[in-house]
Design a protein that fits this description.
The protein is an alpha/beta fold and 263 residues long. Among the domains are: 75 residues, RNA polymerase sigma factor, region 2, helix turn helix motif (Rna Polymerase Sigma Factor, Chain: A); 105 residues, Response regulator (Rossmann fold, 3-Layer(aba) Sandwich). The chain is built from twelve helices and five strands.
């Protein structure tokens, strides 16, 4: 496989991580683009990121931590996007990087240490710090859109254990709209393919007409959303999932939305 093909194979997942880290597709994609531009301008860096997935994420992390990247396009993702930008201007989220890398992206502590250029022991401490922060987060109302009963029950338990309230579970698009109309959620967890053949993507688009709300897609078909087309979800978890991965995604979604009254 050529170097270009190796990098291309990892780009959708780097973009997923970048969006989760920055809280928006616009900002995340801008940092990924800056990383690729830096690599094309520096052969040594290009050779480095060709050595493996961790090296690519390490190059991205150096760009993320060292420069302010402006998106090519104006903000188009509503109030949640604006909240993300406000939070980014005031934080240095090393502990959130460590948590996302070890959960959402499934890197080992040793690989995460390489990416963040930190000792392995410090990575462990950062993850512990992030988990402690999750436990202190303000609770919110959660709508679950999932047609598999066992997964729905698992998500309900997980969300409740985090201190949030599940306002309802929907197996179809119409059920999701009905629940959301009766009580607005501060967070939505959504599958893509639903019981009656309807789409979780369409259901979420319907819900967003009522107002801005953070959404986490949990799906066995991530390739349907990691296409490079706009819009893409900011938070995307792949089935089968680890509970720690969902917890990290929920934490990050609420972190960037915490200035909103919905949260």
């Amino acid at each position: 496989m050529s170097l270009a093909d190796q990098i291309a194979a990892q780009l959708p997942f780097l973009r997923r991580y970048a969006r989760a880290l920055t809280g928006s597709q616009t900002s995340g994609d801008a940092y990924v683009r800056a990383t690729l531009e830096a690599a094309l301008a520096d052969k040594a860096l290009l050779d480095e990121i060709g050595t493996g997935r961790a090296a690519l994420y390490g190059a991205f992390t150096r760009i993320w931590s060292s420069i302010q990247v402006e998106a090519d396009e104006p903000l188009t993702e509503g109030l949640h996007e604006l909240a993300a930008q406000q939070r980014l201007s005031a934080i240095t989220p090393a502990h959130r990087q460590a948590l996302l890398l070890t959960t959402l992206e499934d890197f080992t502590p040793a690989e995460t240490a390489l990416i963040l250029d930190l000792p392995v022991g410090e990575v462990t401490e950062l993850v512990t710090q992030a988990i402690s922060e999750i436990e202190l987060e303000t609770s919110t109302d959660v709508l679950i859109i999932e047609d598999e009963p066992l997964i729905s029950m698992q998500l309900e338990t997980l969300v409740s254990d985090l201190g949030h309230e599940v306002i309802g579970t929907a197996a179809t698009r119409s059920q999701a709209i009905e629940i959301f109309k009766s009580r607005r959620a501060g967070l939505v967890l959504a599958d893509i393919q639903l019981a009656d053949g309807s789409s979780g993507i369409d259901a979420v688009e319907d819900l967003l007409k009522f107002g801005d709300v953070p959404v986490i897609f949990i799906t066995a078909y991530p390739e349907k959303l990691l296409t490079g087309e706009r819009p893409e979800p900011t938070y995307l978890v792949t089935k089968p999932f680890q509970e720690a991965t969902v917890r990290a995604a929920i934490s990050q979604a609420l972190f960037f939305g915490s200035s909103r009254p919905l949260i």
